[in-house]
Every structure is written in C-alpha cells, then in structure tokens.
Design goal:
about 400 residues, two-stranded antiparallel sheet, 23 helices, 2 strands
Length: about 400
C-alpha cells in the first residue's frame, strides 16, 4: 500500500538531530511509514514503538511535535489502515494521561506555568519543593518526596513542559484537518477526532459548530456521548446553546447519552438534582458502551462520574456518598483509583489530620469512607498508586493495619 500525500516532507525533517526517549529520532520516519504496512503485525509493532519513543510513559520530546503533522495526515487518509489507533496516539500526545479532567484544558494557566518554568527564580523553585518535603505526613511519604527533591531540576522540568506544550500546539495547528474527520464514515475515526478536538478551547469557534453538525446526524450512542462531553469541555457556562443541547439529551432513553449530558452539565456548573442523580446512578452502575466506546477518562465512566460529582461541590458529593461507596465497593485495582480519590476528598476535603484520630473520633462521613477503604480487596491495596492516595491523609498504608484501625478482623 502506498500513501504519498500524507507523508510528503517526512524525509525533509532532520530526524537524527531531534531527540526522543531513547536519543536521536532517526527511527521515527520508518515507524510512521510502517503504520501503512499491509501486515497488521508490522503496523502494531510500529504503533507500539511510537508510543514508546515519542510518548514514553506520558512524556513528550523534541521529535514528538514534528511527528504530529504526519500522524494527522495518515489519520486523514482513507487508505490508511486502523486510523482510529493513530488518532488515539494523537490524543495521547495532545494531553498525556488526561490530568485535565474534569474541567478540561486550562490553556491560559498551562501557558503561564510553562513561562514561569522558563523565567522563574530557580532558588525559589527549589525552596518551594523543600517546603513540600517538610510537609510529608510520615516517613514513607517523606522518603518519596526526598527522592523527588534529589532529582529536581527546574531546567529539565522546563524542557519537558516546553515539549508538551509544543506538541499540544502542533496538534492545535491541525484542527482544520481534524474537524474534517467528523464526517468520516468510520465510527472509530469520528470518535477519535471528537476526543482530540475536545482539548482546544482556543479553537472553540471552529470546533463547536462542527460538533453540533455531527450531533444532528450521529446515531451511535458512544459517538454522541463523546460529542456531548467534548462540547462541554471546549465551551463555557455562558454558552446557552451547549447547555440547551445537554439539557435536551439528559432525558434521552440511552443511559450512555444521559451520562454524557450530565458530565457536560456538571462541567458547565450545573448542580441540580437531575444532574446529580444521573451521575450517582453511573457511579453505582456505569452505562454499557457500544463500539467504538467513549475515550474520555480512559473509558472509565464510573471514575469520570465520581470526579465530576466531587468537582461540583463537596456538599453535593456528601449527598451522593452512598452511591460513591457502592461504586467503590464494586471496583478493584486501577478501576478503584478515581473513586478512591473522590471519596477521600468527600471525607477530608483539604484537611490533613496529624496524627490521625482514633476511628471512633472521626465524623460519620469520614468513618464510612475509611471503613469502605479497609474493605477493598488485597489486589487494590497492592497498588502503589492507591497507597500514595492514602498517605496525605495519614491513613494506614497497610490493609491489615487499616482493617484493625476500623475494627475489622481478617
């Protein structure tokens, strides 16, 4: 299979002078070409290699931004196999592991942070990190923070931040080509384009009308859901048309569409009973997804509903606590992380109890949350990500110890 236009200029880039995770990026052009190979195994290997070198563990590099136009070109060419997978890589390059949810990309704040890293006082930055280390809640937490202090390098931090923003802007420059994909006959391509476009509020005037046009004709619930979420992420609460569209869809027959409408309304500031009820129901029992599925929050509908509830208002989240705890009890391993983060915020807010009071001295809400955490299975407690969430609240980071704390026996 020969794809010409999409890769025009690929060899004009001096890839050997660009860096990726493993050094000079001279292997990138052949990997991009291999995405067009006839053999599925060759394409899969090339895509995996690109995830490994221009998006290594979420990091972006000098070569990453240069790869973007060619990846978008391949995604836009109907002769390219598995374009949905390429769009997924573009989405990962755009926002990494989605630390921007549930509010969406704060691009003004992001650009300001990168500028501060570029021009800020290095000694002051180090002093702030040292203060953060001093705030460690226990010895284990302190060791983790001290390790980060030892490797702290503001110049390296700026370099990584600059590369991340450069990739974001490289994808932003491709918005016209990406919006054209909203008309693609392949549902995975439409869904992938919706996901990528959701992160560019600066381009809302170009993106939103195209999303509305797709919404008028789209029939697949997962793509409709993606459009609703994306529309809310790139607009603001004063966008009456988006709010109106979301209000229309929150009463839809399809649970996945109702979920997406509630997610969108919560993002735009709605805290009414209907929105809360839909989100709480999704925490207890997430809607089923059709292919191609919803990409936001890595497809974790329960987790996304949980963080959306907590982002509304802590009082609202307390009112939905029973739903959150039911949802938490139905999770295990990584699927528990988002709900755990939500219930910890409900229990403690910004408070960091030092030392942790006796269990009987906690208020009713906090007791219920800590008891539910102690009841989670050993598979969840084995994850360092889960234990790191407990550390700031001075909770036991050993399951047996936590169970003893709340009065449970093995």
């Amino acid at each position: 299979m020969t794809i010409i236009n999409a890769l025009d200029g690929l060899d004009a880039v001096d890839w050997a002078r660009l860096e990726h995770a493993y050094g000079p990026a001279e292997d990138v052009p052949d990997q991009i070409r291999a995405l067009c190979a006839d053999e599925a195994a060759v394409r899969e290997k090339a895509l995996g290699a690109l995830y490994g070198n221009i998006f290594h563990q979420g990091s972006r590099y000098e070569a990453s931004a240069h790869a973007v136009p060619f990846l978008v070109g391949l995604a836009a060419d109907t002769n390219t196999p598995e374009r949905g997978g390429i769009l997924a890589l573009i989405g990962s390059l755009t926002v990494g592991y989605e630390g921007h949810l549930p509010q969406g990309v704060d691009i003004i704040g992001w650009r300001a942070e990168v500028e501060e890293l570029r021009s800020g006082d290095r000694e002051e930055m180090r002093r702030r990190v040292e203060e953060w280390v001093a705030e460690a809640v226990d010895e284990g937490d302190r060791r983790v923070r001290e390790m980060q202090l030892r490797v702290f390098d503001p110049d390296a931090s700026y370099l990584y931040a600059r590369h991340e923003l450069a990739v974001y802007d490289a994808v932003r420059a491709q918005v016209p080509r990406l919006t054209a994909l909203l008309d693609d006959p392949d549902a995975r391509v439409r869904a992938g384009a919706v996901y990528v476009l959701a992160w560019f509020p600066e381009e809302a005037r170009h993106i939103v009308p195209r999303l509305y046009a797709l919404l008028a004709v789209e029939r697949l619930p997962s793509v409709v859901a993606g459009v609703l979420v994306a529309s809310a992420l790139v607009t603001s609460a004063d966008d009456a048309e988006t709010v109106g569209l979301l209000r229309q869809r929150i009463g839809a027959d399809e649970p996945l569409v109702r979920w997406a409408a509630a997610i969108g309304l919560a993002r735009l500031g709605a805290t009414d009973e209907e929105v809360v009820a839909v989100l709480a129901a999704a925490v207890v029992e997430p809607p089923e997804q059709d292919a191609p599925g919803v990409a936001f929050h890595a497809g974790d509908l329960r987790g996304y509903a949980s963080v959306a509830l907590v982002a509304m208002d802590r009082t609202v989240a307390v009112g939905a606590l029973d739903a959150l705890l039911t949802g938490l009890a139905r999770t295990s391993g990584p699927s528990a992380f988002a709900v755990t983060s939500a219930v910890l915020y409900v229990a403690f807010g910004a408070d960091k109890p030092r030392p942790l009071p006796a269990y009987d001295e906690l208020d009713d809400v906090t007791r219920k949350v800590v008891h539910a955490l102690a009841e989670l299975d050993e598979r969840t407690w084995r994850w360092g990500n889960f234990l790191l969430m407990l550390g700031p609240y001075n909770l036991p980071r050993d399951r047996a110890e936590c169970r003893r704390y709340v009065g449970l026996t093995e």
